[in-house]
Design goal:
The chain is of the alpha/beta class. Helix content is 51%, strand content 11%. The N terminus is likely disordered.
Amino acid sequence: MSDELEIEHASERESTSSASISSSSTNATEDLHKRLTRQYSSGAQLIQYDDVVERFDDTTQTTVKKNFTSALLEDVAQYAQGFHPVTVVADNLTYVVQTEPVHEGVPTVGKTIKNALNLRKRFQERGRPKVDTTILHDVSFVLKPGESMLVLGPPRSGKSTLLQLLANRRRHGTVSGGVYMDAVPLYGAQQPRNWHRQVVYVSQHDEHLARLTVRETFEFAFECVGPETVPAWKREEDIDQVLDMLGLHHQATTLVGGELLRGVSGGERKRVTIGVEFGRFPELVLLDEVTTGLDATTSLGVISRVNLAAKVLNLPVICSLQQPSYELFSQFDKLLLMEKGRVAYFGPISSALPFFETLGFRCPEHENPADFLPTVLNNPALYFRPVEGASPDSKPSTARQICQAYRRSEHYRQVEQEVNELLPDENNDATATADSDSDSSRLIRHPLKGSRRRDALRASHTLQQHKYPLSLGRQTFLLLKRGFLQHKNDTSVIATRFISAIIMSLVLGTFFFQLGDSQADTVNKGGLTFFMITFICLNAMGTTMPLVFQERPVFIAQREAKYYSTFPYWMGAILVELPVGFLESSLFGTIVYWMAGMNPDVGRFFFFLLVLFAASQSMGAFTRFCAVMSRELEVAESMAGAGVGLFMIFSGFMIHPDRLWPPLLAFIYTSPMFYASQAVMINELSGRVVNCTQSELVPPTGFPTLDLPYEQGGFNGTQVCPLPTGEAILAAADVDTEAYWKWIWTSILFVMVILFQVLSYFGLKFVHHDPSGSRNPIEQRSLQNDSLIESVIVLPSVAAARDSASVSASTSFSSVSGMAIEMRDLRVDDGEPTLSLARGAEFGVGINSSAALPGSLMDLSAGSYLSFQNLCYAVTLKKGKRRKKYRKPLLHNVSGYCTPGMLLALMGPSGAGKSTLLDVLAERKTGGKTKGTILFNGGPRNANYRRESAYVEQNDTHLPTQTVREAIEFSARTRTTLSKQERIAIVDQTLEILDLVSIEGLMIGGGSLGTILSPEQKKRVTIAVELATQPKLLFLDEPTSGLDTVGAFNVMRLVKRIANRGVSIVCTIHQPSASVFALFTHLLLLRRGGYPLYFGELGESHSTLFAYFKSLGHRCPQHKNPADFILDISMSVAAGDHAESNLESDDEAEAEAHAARQQQEMDAQLSMASTSGSMLPTLMSSADPDVDPAEVVLGDHLIEHWQHCDERTKQIDLIEKGICPANVAEDASAARLSRYQLSYVSQFVILCKRASRGYWRRPSIVLSKVFINAFMSILLGVTFWDLPADQLGAAERSSLFFFLCLFGVMNAFAILALVHDERGPYYRERASYCYSSITYILSFILSELPYQLLSIVMIVIPVYFMAGLQLSAAHFFKFALVYLLSSLASTALCQASATITTSLAMATAVVSAILTIFAITAGYILSKADMPKPYLGVYYANYVSYSLEAFLSNEFSGLELSCPDNEGAVPVPVMDSMGVMQTQYFCPMTSGEIYLDSLGLNADNFWLNVMAVALFAVAFELLSWVGAKFVVAIKR
């Protein structure tokens, strides 16, 4: 039967393939149209297939496109039941959210406590109404089937909010007005809850599982969101088509990857985000900034393919973009231009520029309209020119006035007319409300009548289908399959868990090797059980916690996209963990069980494995619950660590249950470790006979009264075995002796697993953690009051210049922040305004360096001179199974220079080596080999180089707890020689220059603190931090990455101002807009592989650049961004790459395979480019018409031409002669600066202040630690309440001290995450010589000291007196000293582990392993005398053993012990003189010295132990310094 099905499927595939290949024929096309007409004869218009092909006609592409489009048509016809094109209508759509009143200031521990205690204020705030914040204001548009709409706007314009509303992704807020899909209202009383099934929404965030391959990610998504009717083989074909469409086919088997796992590139990951949504058969496509991180060619290829598919299927497409190229802008039919939630324009994209011309804004010739339009909304005065015949009052000077002008225009009236036609009023009883911006009214319309109503009802029925395409069972199966695929793809996670289990099992097995039936060995089995359960619990915590936080963003995104519901995800996670957890616990338990010589009965062995598995699962479920309930990893780790400590105390091992205060018994019965320990002990000891050795008999041989008669208080020579059976040992430990109890305890363990897992489910379902973090307070205030911050530049003299035909003036104007800017040479020639820079860029803002603020930062004479000649750079890589080495060159003979006032752009496509060159020039590379000459101020780079230069990294890495001002002040303080007054002035000027005054008091944020500053603001902070150091040479790596057009221009405009102050600037730039590109003075263009194509001036209106490439046959078309133009030229390469031909490998096959992979990647990019018609056709069309196309220079000939052209020869001669004036070179050679500006003491003081502030500003972490310490202190005090000086009290004192030693490590676990968060800023600041590694490490530990002292107050004082320890001042202060040193050593240990490891997960694993080994060898279970000799070395290298010995020596010195009422005494049967058997009780311990002696300890060694703990703390700090100085976790 299966063979017949397979043959049927094969024939179906074959027929489908043949139909696809022959789709160009008329018969095939007509057949498809007939099938489509039969499938949905709804009256909806279907675009004609021939029209689609004709619209995208190209002789080299027709066949490919016909195959692609016909496959789409066939899929829809066969599998998309109910599919029909829709019309999307927004009718005065308004969206309002309620926000809390904005609280000013930086959150601190003090403010949090004050607000919590201020009950009156809390009560008043609870009654205070929330603020209504309007995000969207009366948005109206109509989008018909097959039309595409581009959404543009400056930051906070509401673009993403609009798309999220259309995709049903907004959980809160109030919607008024209307949104309709084929007249079906998406919001309102009859709101269809499941229209997401008909919508493709591609988010701007790339949330994927790093351990899945690209194909596996697609397969999972297509199965989750696609129709169930699609067979598996057809789904695979669809995935292949999408992979080909997005240029990902060559990466199909590559892991997606992430921050901690290498995978596909960032641009490819973005394409994965786009492609996974196309498993649906949508009726509406929504794309939210999907080209961020992609180059222009790839972006155009992706969007053109999506638009092509939409045209074929007649789908409406709405897409918001950042900095789209002109070709990409032209791909769309309509444009929606937004500003702060209002519509500034909606209509045909071809009518946008004419509309703005009527308002007085004309786009310059080489300005991209997509850059021009948002910039007009942000700075209207920059482009305004008078309109003939218009009144002076008609000039729209603000973005709000532009929006009002649009609502008075014919475009808006046409939209209203279309809306009225599609949504006519019913019974003339529509409600009307006054419009905020015009006299028109907003109509709330009703559903349609007649045939339109029938179509709407059919559409409504489609929208009301089930929320998820798949059943719960199928969802669970797919999630289970995905989980196992992750384990298969990245075996390192499981391997790490198994290796850890093997190592710890060998440690425990050898430490407790072959325990016999003696009393000591039998009792030690209890200690073995305790440590086994403890390790199982700690290991479960360490493996579960990171996984939950890694998968959380993906779970949130996919749940919102309705891939699956919460229950299948929850169940899938449980089922995936079960086999791995069982194998891990079985491997660990098997080794320990047989090495330790436990009960050889096979049944008991398998029961033992069952208990370990149950304990592991219960602790894993508890950890998952803590992670689900916590927003921050540090808080979750603190919660889980406190939970483990609680479970350890009440495991029944550390304190006798009979001695507990009755209410505390509840903690006993909530501890998984208690049930696991009880079950294992019953399983091991029940029915066992214990044999006492001679040394174990009591009274011991040599005891004074052993041979005395009974009447004299002696034992008449009688010795007994205290615990002769396993049941006796169990009874002494208050463990039930009946065998059936072990099944009861194990059953309760599994009940606890279910309980914690159920709690985790409810946490996943109802506790929402917004992954985007908190809202920027400035942004929130601006939303609440639009007039608060108005990013408008006012040009006072525009009115005077309006009627002038030619204006040449130096007109000063200022922004809201008071920034002084000057615009030079404002000319109006032939009716078109041109704003010229000093070097003649066609558009830009010129800065008059002489008109600087008082005390200017830099003048032109103070600049630096940098030159580099024949620069080469290569790295050594390993490939293949045999890990053969080969050398990969990344730069080839690159030459250039940068002088004061120059703004040099490093440009090129992906893989061109832009960032590599910048790192080499900035001396930031940590590996690789560099050749060539680099001169700084005429000589080799020396110690002055990093002191006089600054490097703005692409990633904005800052301490999240610093305010903007503090970050700038810190940089100025540590890297300049200015006085305090001068430094304050510099910081103030920097804040003003970079428009940061309004946010100077805000924390930078990031990481666990959430997003506080916007990307643009954070980028400006990054520049400000470096600018405050008064650099003579400034490097910037992709300063506009992730910013929109307005943000990119604002940042680069400010960079240009810095250059005009005399600073030499080298900047890599990715896909700049025309306005940004015009700000540069020079260009170094690189080709893929690091080959130079051009270096030199841009010239007036890019004349020098255009002249060079015109000589090669290339001319820039109108409205073509010059930056895009030259990037297209740089990508006009042959499929091969010279860089790969120079591989040095003794395995030719391997080198060829590597080159083949590079070839595939290049082919994929060229395929996307050629299919979209974006690159080579553009180049040919841009060639000079007078030049024969065969003579146009492309590809590798560009490299050869540049190497031999006159321009390069002149520049090389100039570099060889020297670009640096003689006086500057002499001054540079004479000056020799020290590495660090500040002394070590000053560094230490500043770093301590900063670290202390950082702690104080993390109230959630600090207060959680305080709460946990307070809770644990009270719990410990009550648990060990008034310990008696008896036999059991002595053991319980030891348990208390042992737990305090371990609690210090558990309390310091949060340090791991803090060190990990600070790693990026530390590497940046260390590379800039802000401070030394040793001062950073010492300041970190010193900043912890106040909290350690606080823990002494919270732990030591309550525990000491509540536990009834020795009431002596000397004993108390010694106890406090030991606890302080032990806690500091624990903190230093965690700090060292974090600095010597490269990831947080690895650091957690290292600390867990060290903690377990230290706990085993601390002398708590086995005394030093009884410990195996191989472990004595570990004992002496273990600070926990010294801490424990110091605690014990301090407490038991001079302590009298007893056996009140013979409790704890051993009954010894003694024959009296009359021959009658009597019972004499032997009290083993009568003094603290005897107890210490039994452990092999000496009370006189107290101060030696204290010194040892202090030395360990110092040693761990030295290890931290070594890790911080020599271990590089982020390699460049």
